[in-house]
Amino acid sequence: MQDVIIKHGWYRGDEIINLPCKLNSPIKFGARGWYGNFSAPGQGSRRIHIDDENALEYIGTIKLNGTDEAEETEEQIIERIKERFEIFKYSVTGIASGDIRSLIVAGAPGIGKTETITRTLEDCPNVQFETIRGNIVSSYQLYQTLYDHSQDDKVLVLDDCDNILRDPNGLNILKAALESGDRPRIISYKSQSVMNIGIPTEFEYQGRMIFITNENFQKIIDKDASVLSKHLRALIDRGLYLDLLLHSRRDIYCRVKEMVLDHGLLADAEIDPKHYPHILLWIKDNLDQIRSLSLRTPIHIAEMIRTNEENWRRMAGVFLLRQGK
């Protein structure tokens, strides 16, 4: 139960304004709009209809798993995400200008990391950048890619290349390339295989790099003292590491909500905006069961609404939930 103030709602035709009460369960969206079960002093439990999610003012904190740890409200999470993405854009602009020469960006997949980088770099004049997605799986490939982009006017974006973190030689090369500061970054790979294709076994990497990862480096470091955690600690110590703090499903839902309501994520989806709150509520109600939650989730639901406006929830349950419910 959560202490709230109903800023505006209705109960059996009577208007409710600024009523302090307790919310007994999460609010839902039904045939008559948003509603919830509330307990008001001396009135017992009542189903009260409200304007929307913003018709409630939450008082105090919500408890997590019966502990005293305060849970952020959705509004607080969205503000935190906005702040992180603003700093993210500043950092990418720094890469474009050459003021920053390396950056690691961490966050859950499908939340707009690559899109943010691409749009920011495209808005910067005279920047040559290339994005490589998922093709770097060995130290040999990483070495060759860095050599091909070693000039000081090149920006290299490595996306979905987390497999290289499991290659000890690749990690050492990555540490050298992501070194911040002004010291020369000398990359070495003592192998006949690179010489056979005309690449030296050592060169100075003068390019700028953004490494996008789905891994939570700090969580891995805090978990144990494994070889991987030691390498990741070295990466964080050597360069700039930005954690977007988007790892939990609730965080991702709040990012989805922000993008749908404030940034026109579904503007090209060819559905009536009246469906937006229904989509968000379905995602929220099924948060733990959605197979792969990302910014693509509401887009997929919009496709189902276009296909069958009456039965899209049934379709979404089959296509998007783990158990196909």
Instruction: Tell me the overall shape.
Output: elongated
Low-pLDDT segments, ≥5 res: 61-69
The largest sheet, given as strand count, sense and whether it forms a barrel, is: 8 strands, antiparallel
CATH topology term of the largest domain: Rossmann fold
**CATH homology superfamily name of the largest domain:** P-loop containing nucleotide triphosphate hydrolases
Query: Which CATH architecture of the largest domain is right?
Result: 3-Layer(aba) Sandwich
Identify the CATH class of the largest domain.
Answer: Alpha Beta
Report the mean per-residue pLDDT as an integer.
89
Q: How helix-rich are the residues, as a percent range? A: 25-40%
Percentage of residues in DSSP E strands: 15-25%
Distance between the termini: 28 Å
Tally the beta strands.
Answer: 17
User: How many domain regions?
Assistant: 3
Q: How many H/I helices?
A: 11
Question: How large, in whole angstroms, is the Cα Rg?
Answer: 24 Å
Strand-pairing-aware structural class: alpha+beta
The string of secondary-structure elements, in order, is EEEEEEEEEEHEHEHEHEHEEHHEHHHH
